[in-house]
Design goal:
- By secondary structure, this protein is of the alpha+beta class.
- The protein has helices at residues 4-7, 15-21, 24-36, 42-58, 97-101, 115-118, 157-177, 201-204, 208-213, 225-253, 279-299, 340-359, 361-367, 393-404, 458-481, 485-500, 512-520, 529-532, 539-547, 553-607, 614-642, 650-678, 689-694; strands spanning 63-67, 79-81, 83-85, 91-93, 102-103, 123-127, 134-136, 139-148, 186-200, 258-262, 269-274, 277-278, 302-305, 318-327, 389-390, 439-441, 446-452.
- Strand 7 and strand 8 (139-148) form a beta hairpin.
- The radius of gyration is 28 Å and the shape is globular.
- The chain binds adenosine-5'-diphosphate and magnesium ion (MG).
- Magnesium ion (MG) binds at residues 193, 320, 447.
Length: 696
C-alpha cells in the first residue's frame, strides 16, 4: 500500500494542484473567490476549466459531471463528455468555463415538494468553488448547488451555504464588539463520525428485508451475543481489515482525511472518523464516504448497512456531528482561552449555543427525524429524543457561579464578573464525557449525536448554523446599542444562562427520571417523526429561516412535504416487504415444519402405543397455535395496507403509517420471531441474526 501522503488528495483538484496548473493571476482570483466568497469572473472560470480538463485528461478522464445533493439525501450526477467533435471527423477534448460554473440536469425525477410546479420546471446546478473538484470512477466531479430558475433551492447544499453565510455575518458582528477587527469571516467546521455495519454479501442476498428496506424486519435475538462475539471476532478480522485499508485509501485519494476503526459497541459494527473541515466540504465528504463504504464493501464480498437500526435489539448506527466555528485568522471560537477578555468572548459564544439549542430544540429534533432514526431516538439507546446539553462538571460549575454571582468552587477569586477573571483550563480529555447526551460540549466543540447514520449532515448543520446565528444576532443588536460594553456583556450572559439553563443536563439521558425531570423543565419530548415534523412549519421557525434568508417560506413548506412523503414511502415499502416475507416465506416454512412434526408423531404412534409422544405433541400444539396466530396477523397487516388512503394528504398519510401500519407490522413480527425459535433450523427460510452478525 502506498504511503498516505503520496495518495492523499491525488484525485483532487486542490490548492496545490491549482497552484501548479493555473497561471498566477488566475490562481489568485480563484483563491479570492474561495476565501472571501467573491464573484468569479467568467474569464477566470474559462482558464480554470481548461486547466481542470488538462489535469483530469492526464489521468485518463474523459467525462465530467456536476455533482449535487438533491433532497433525496443522496447525491446525483449526470455524466457529460469532454469530447467535442470537430469538422472533418476530428475530436478534441474541451471543457468551457460555462460548463464548469453551470449545468442543467434533468430535474424532473428529483423530489421538490411541489416547488417545480409552482416555479420553473427546470433547475440548474452552480459550481461551489469552496469544495474542490475531484475524480471519482474516472469522472471529473464538480461539486455544485442545485436551484430552480426561480431561485428556489432544490438541494441540501444551497441552504447550507446560506446558513454558513448568516452565521459568519452575525459572528463577525460580535467579534468586532470585542475589537477583533481582523475577523472578516467565520466558518463553521464539522467532523462527522460515521457508524455502519458490515455483513456477508451472500447472506444479505437471502434476505428481502435487507435488500428492499436496508434493515431486518424479522429476527429473534441471538442467544448470548457477547460470548459469540468473543468467539467470532478473531476470525472476521482479516476481511474487515482489508476492507478498512482499501476504504481509507479510496477516501484519501478523494481528499477525505478518514480513519476507519473497529467499534466494539455492537458485533459487526464499525466507525469512521474524518478530520474536521469546513461544513459544506464536510457534507460533501460524508456523502462520498457513505458511497465509498458501499462500493468497497462489494469488492470484499460484504455489504455495508447504513440504516439506523439494521437489527432490533442490537445497538443502532448514528452520526456524531462535531461542530465549531473558526475565524479567518484560524481562531476556534469554542476554544476556552486563558486570558480574561478572551474568556468572556468564549463565554458569549458558548451562551449563544446554549440559548440556540434551548430556543430551537424542536428544529434540532426535526433535523434528525426519519423513519429509520425513530428506532434509535427515545428507544433506550443513544441518544434520547429529548434534546438537552452536556457541558461537563467544570464548565457547569462556572456557569452556576456566573449565574448566581457566587464564588466558583475550586477557583480562588470570589468575583465571577465576566471579563475580569481568568477561566481555569478545561479538561479536554475524553474521561469527562457523557455519552448519553444529545448535544455535548467536548472541550473545544459541540458534538450533536442524534443524527441517523444514513442521513445527509446538511440539514442538521443548516439548523445549527442558523439557530446560533439567531442568538448572535440578538446579542449583537443588544451589545452594539449598549452604552457600556463590559457591563452589558456581563448582564447579558447572566440573564441568558438563567433563562436557558434548563437545557443543561449532565445526568443519565436514558433514565426514566430524566424523562420526568425534562417534562418538569418544559423540554420537548418528540417521540417520532410524525410528532416532530409539524414543528418545522411553526410560525416561530418559519420566521427564523426567512429572517436569515436560509429558506423561503415556500422552501420550508416544500421540505416539510418531502419529509412527510418520504416517511410514508419508507414505511409503505417496509410493510409490503414484511407482508411478502411473512406470507410467502415464514408461514410456509412454519407449516412445513409443523407437517413434518405431525407426520413424525403419526409414525411414532403407528409404530407402537407404548412410546412416549409428549414432546411431539407439545411442539405441535405450540406450532399450530403460532401458525394460526401468524396467519391472522398477516391478514390484519394486509388489511391495514389495503386500507391505506391514497388520496390522503402528506401528513395524514404519515400519521396512518405511524398509527396503523407500524403496530400491524410489529404484531406480525412478534409471532414470526417466536416461530423462529421453534421451527427447525434447516426449515427457516433465511439467515438469522446469529448468522448475519457473527458470520463475516
Ligand atoms: P470521539 O469518538 O471520542 O467522539 P473522535 O476523535 O473519534 O472522538 O472524533 C472527534 C471528531 O471531532 C473528529 O472527526 C474530529 O475531526 C472532530 N473535531 C475536532 N475538532 C473539531 C472542531 N474544532 N470542529 C469540528 N470538528 C472537530
Ligand atoms: Mg463521538
Amino acid at each position: 500500500m502506498a504511503h498516505m501522503d503520496e495518495i492523499f488528495g491525488s484525485n483532487v483538484f486542490n490548492d496545490a494542484v491549482m497552484q501548479q496548473h493555473l497561471p498566477k493571476d488566475t490562481y489568485k482570483a480563484l483563491k479570492k473567490t474561495i476565501d472571501e466568497g467573491r464573484h468569479l469572473d467568467p474569464q477566470v472560470a474559462a482558464v480554470v476549466a481548461h486547466a481542470m480538463k488538462d489535469w483530469a485528461a492526464e489521468k485518463g478522464v474523459t467525462h465530467f459531471t456536476h455533482w449535487f445533493q438533491p433532497m433525496t439525501g443522496i447525491t446525483a450526477e449526470k455524466h457529460d463528455s469532454f469530447l467535442n467533435p470537430q469538422p472533418g471527423g476530428k475530436m478534441i477534448l474541451s471543457f468551457s468555463g460555462k460548463e464548469l460554473v453551470r449545468g442543467e440536469p434533468d430535474a424532473s425525477s428529483f423530489p421538490s415538494g411541489g416547488l417545480r410546479s409552482t416555479f420553473e420546471a427546470r433547475g440548474y446546478t452552480a459550481w461551489d468553488p469552496t469544495s474542490y473538484a475531484f475524480i471519482k470512477d474516472n469522472v471529473l466531479c464538480i461539486p455544485t448547488a442545485f436551484c430552480s430558475y426561480g431561485g428556489e433551492a432544490l438541494d441540501q447544499k444551497t441552504p447550507l451555504l446560506r446558513s454558513m453565510e448568516t452565521l459568519s455575518k452575525q459572528a463577525v458582528r460580535v467579534l468586532h464588539l470585542f475589537g477583533r477587527m481582523d475577523s472578516v469571516r467565520v466558518t463553521p467546521t464539522v467532523g462527522p463520525e460515521q457508524e455502519y455495519f458490515l455483513i456477508d454479501r451472500e447472506l444479505y442476498e437471502k434476505r428481502r428485508d435487507l435488500i428492499f428496506t436496508g434493515r431486518t424486519l424479522y429476527g429473534a435475538k441471538p442467544p448470548k451475543g457477547q460470548e459469540l462475539e468473543d468467539h467470532y471476532f478473531g476470525a472476521i478480522k482479516p476481511r474487515i481489515q482489508a476492507f478498512m485499508s482499501e476504504l481509507d485509501e479510496e477516501l484519501w485519494k478523494l481528499g477525505v482525511a478518514a480513519k476507519t476503526e473497529h467499534n466494539e459497541v455492537a458485533p459487526a459494527q464499525h466507525e469512521l472518523a474524518p478530520v474536521f473541515t469546513i461544513t459544506n466540504v464536510a457534507a460533501d465528504h460524508n456523502q462520498l464516504t457513505m458511497e465509498m463504504m458501499k462500493k468497497v464493501a462489494q469488492r470484499h464480498g460484504l455489504v455495508c448497512l447504513l440504516h439506523e437500526k439494521p437489527f432490533a435489539g442490537v445497538n443502532g448506527s448514528g452520526k456524531h456531528n462535531n461542530w465549531s466555528m473558526v475565524t479567518n485568522t484560524g481562531y476556534n471560537l469554542l476554544d476556552p482561552s486563558d486570558t480574561p477578555y478572551e474568556s468572556s468572548q468564549f463565554l458569549l459564544f458558548l451562551t449563544a449555543v446554549i440559548k440556540a439549542v434551548d430556543d430551537y430544540q424542536d428544529l434540532l429534533r426535526v433535523s434528525v427525524a426519519s423513519a429509520g432514526n425513530d428506532h434509535r431516538l427515545g428507544a433506550n439507546e443513544a441518544p434520547p429524543a429529548i434534546i438537552s446539553m452536556f457541558v461537563g462538571e467544570e464548565l457547569g460549575e462556572i456557569l452556576d457561579a456566573i449565574e448566581s454571582g457566587s464564588a466558583y468552587m475550586g477557583h480562588e477569586h470570589s468575583d465571577m464578573t465576566v471579563g475580569v477573571h481568568v477561566l481555569p483550563k478545561f479538561p479536554k480529555d475524553n474521561t469527562d464525557r457523557n455519552r448519553t447526551s444529545p448535544f455535548a460540549f467536548t472541550g473545544n466543540k459541540f458534538e450533536f449525536r442524534s443524527l441517523g447514520s444514513s442521513a445527509s449532515i446538511s440539514e442538521t448543520n443548516v439548523v445549527i448554523n442558523t439557530i446560533v446565528a439567531e442568538s448572535l444576532r440578538q446579542f449583537a443588536d443588544e451589545l452594539e446599542a449598549a452604552p457600556d460594553f463590559k457591563t452589558a456583556l456581563h448582564e447579558l450572559i447572566v440573564r441568558e444562562i438563567r433563562a436557558h439553563k434548563r437545557i443543561i443536563f449532565n445526568g443519565n439521558g436514558y433514565s426514566e427520571e430524566w424523562v420526568k425531570e425534562a417534562e418538569k423543565r418544559g423540554l420537548l419530548n418528540l417521540h417520532s417523526t410524525v410528532d416532530a415534523l409539524p414543528y418545522m412549519v411553526s410560525e416561530k421557525n418559519i420566521k427564523l429561516f426567512t429572517t436569515h434568508k436560509v429558506y423561503s417560506e415556500t422552501e420550508i413548506r416544500s421540505r416539510y412535504e418531502i419529509k412527510l412523503e418520504e416517511y410514508a414511502k419508507v414505511l409503505n415499502i417496509e410493510a409490503e416487504t414484511a407482508l411478502m416475507m411473512a406470507q410467502r416465506e415464514i408461514l410456509p416454512a412454519a407449516m412445513k415444519y409443523s407437517a413434518a412434526v405431525a407426520s413424525q408423531l403419526k409414525a411414532l404412534k403407528d409404530a407402537s402405543s407404548a412410546v412416549s409422544t409428549s414432546a411431539e405433541e407439545k411442539l405441535l400444539a405450540k406450532l399450530s397455535c403460532n401458525v394460526s396466530l401468524l396467519s391472522d396477523r398477516i391478514d390484519e397487516l394486509q388489511a391495514a395496507i389495503v386500507n391505506t388512503n391514497h388520496e390522503a394528504d402528506a401528513k395524514e398519510a404519515a400519521v396512518y403509517e405511524h398509527d396503523v401500519i407500524i403496530p400491524a407490522m410489529n404484531a406480525v413480527r412478534v409471532v414470526a420471531d417466536e416461530l423462529e425459535t421453534q421451527v427447525g433450523r434447516s426449515y427457516w427460510p433465511f439467515p438469522t441474526y446469529a448468522d448475519l452478525l457473527f458470520n463475516v
